Amino acid sequence: MKPTNRLALRGLCAVLALPGALLAAPAFAQPTPRPIAPAAPGAPVAPASPVAVAPPGPAPRAPVQDPLAIALAAQPGGLTPAQSGQMASKTKRSVRAKQAELEVASARVDQAFISYFPRLSLSATYTRLSNVPGFALGGGGYNLVLAQGEGPLAVGPCDATQPTGPQCALGADKKPAFSKDTKFDPVLNSTAFVASLSVPISDYLFRISQGYSAAQHSEKGKRIELEAEGLQAAADAKIAYYNWLRARGSVVVTKQAVDQSRSHVEDANKTFAVGLISKADVLRLEAQLAGAQQTQAETESLSLLSEEQLRILLQIPADQQLAIGSDVMHEPAEPVSDTMAALQEQAMARRLEIRALDETEMSLKETVSIARAGYLPRLDAFADATMANPNQRIFPAQNQFDGTWDAGVRLSWTLNDALVASGATAEAKARMASIAEQKGILRDGLRLEVTSAFADMQKSVATIEASERQLTASEESLRVRNELFKNGKATSVELVDAEAEVTRARLGRLNARIGLAVARVRLDHATGRDVAAKPVAAAE
Fold first, then answer.
1. What is the CA radius of gyration of the chain?
2. What pTM was computed for the model?
3. What is the DSSP letter of 120?
């Protein structure tokens, strides 16, 4: 169509549309009704003039169904953020690792408790001895005799005629049991059973109680770390859940963009057929459709990836279908009532990570006391019971089991232990200083974490209302641009811009809703509000 004909056609359309525009224009001035004077008493009343009734206006449009709200609506039996957090706190591998560390700490507590008991050791020994020449009593007419009365064996002259002298150890045949010609053969097989009891008296004062206390604080710290890791896993799972919803919502929004682009391409082809637009306008809309289809493919891929991440995090099998159990698009957008300073104070008082470091610091204090005990001497009480064949304490050695015992107290001091204690004490103090600095770093990080979550919460609340207004305006702008485009009064560039604006508004509303939910999860975790109702007792 020639430009002149096109201008003429547009002018004709404008003239034809003028009466409708005038009818649709609002009346800016209404006639002021004149006051009616009251009728005199007894005067006939004039019949009332008929009241003009305005013609019925157009019926109100039925509410448009929001595809995004329908796609993200809660379904019976669907997965909720709370359920995701509970599942992740039990299945996440980092939580299992912390559970193993807690079991190690508990085992160390048991070991430290056993140290209170005296040390009892049992041993059994068999030894084969090499053969050595025996020995005999000889010379001088001496015999092995018994001293007067009860007493040990002694070697001396045997004089049975003296009542006070040593008596001969007579055998059954009334002869000396051991004469000067008696020979003693060596015992080649030695067997011994020994029971030893050791009581570390000094350790009870300077090592054992401190070691047990250090193990208890370490176990308590690991238990708090386990709970903190579970809360972190739950928060991560909730955020992963909302990211999954974000990805699914993005698929719906891009599908809407593809549908509206396809509809505009069809309208453009019809308008081009009557000569109101050029082929370039049609191609521009087809390019917009291709771009929307590409974006849809990307969002579908992202949705698949986010769902798989959620399945791995919650250990959900691939054959189990995931359904949405929370209505994120209609959650109340309430601003934060507390100030940022109050929220930061809550974080310092409630966060379990700080309390875990407190327990670790107290454990290291006990470790310093244990290391210092190396400067002092050791005091031990001991007792031994021996049943041996032959018993080394009995002479002469006899091929039979004999029992003996001994008990005593031993005071010892090792110079090397004192030197090692100096290095161990310095190491424990350095570790305490490191823990103190870690607590400072953690507090700084918590303040920043609370500030970030607080700012995101405030931004999301304000963005939700703005995104709703933006979506309403952009959809109306697109409708008007589309009508103008079909009548040849708008270009394809304007229509494409309007489509892009609608898509951005829909994504903005989705991101605002998801952002509010994510910010609420982050703020609850940052301030320690997600700690159980019965938290682990704080370190004293």
1. 49
2. 0.70
3. E
Classify residue 272 as exposed, middle or buried by CB count within 10 Å of its CB (0-12, 13-18, 19+). middle
Residue 367 in contact with residue 399, Cβ under 8 Å? no
178/154 Cα distance (integer angstroms): 10
Strand partners for 156: 143
And the tokens for 368? 């310093």
Q: Is 155 helix (H, G, I), strand (E, B) or coil?
A: strand
For the record, the structure tokens of 202 come out as: 């000094």
C-alpha distance from residue 174 to each of 146, 152, 160, 162 (Å) = 14, 20, 12, 17
3-state secondary structure of 58: coil
First-to-final CA distance of the chain = 90
**Helix spans in 395-414 (H):** none
| 3-class SS of residue 51 | coil
Describe the chain by its helix, strand, coil percentages, rounded to 5: 60, 10, 30
Residues 6+ apart with CB under 8 A from 341: none
pLDDT digits (tens, 9 = 90+) for 258-312: 998 898 888 888 888 888 888 888 898 899 899 999 999 999 999 999 999 999 9
**Residue 403, by phi and psi: left (phi above 0), alpha (psi -120 to 50) or beta?**
beta
Answer for the pair 321, 65: CB distance below 8 angstroms, yes or no.
no
Residue with tokens 């509000």: 529
136: closest CA among 153, 152, 151, 155? 155
What is the distance between the alpha carbons of residues 177 and 452, in angstroms, rounded to a whole number? 101
Distance of alpha carbon 296 from alpha carbon 303, whole angstroms: 10
Superfamily of domain 67-115+207-377+413-526: Outer membrane efflux proteins (OEP) (1.20.1600.10)
- For 235, the token pair is 């928060």
* Domain boundary assignment for the chain: 67-115+207-377+413-526, 135-184
Nearest to 244 by CA among 307, 183, 322: 307
Residue 421 zone, left/alpha/beta (φ > 0; ψ -120 to 50; rest): alpha
pLDDT digits over 210-265, tens only?
999 999 999 999 999 999 999 999 999 999 999 999 999 999 999 999 998 898 88
Angle between helices 492-526 and 279-314 in degrees, nearest 10: 20
Q: Alpha-carbon distance 158 to 49, whole Å?
A: 168
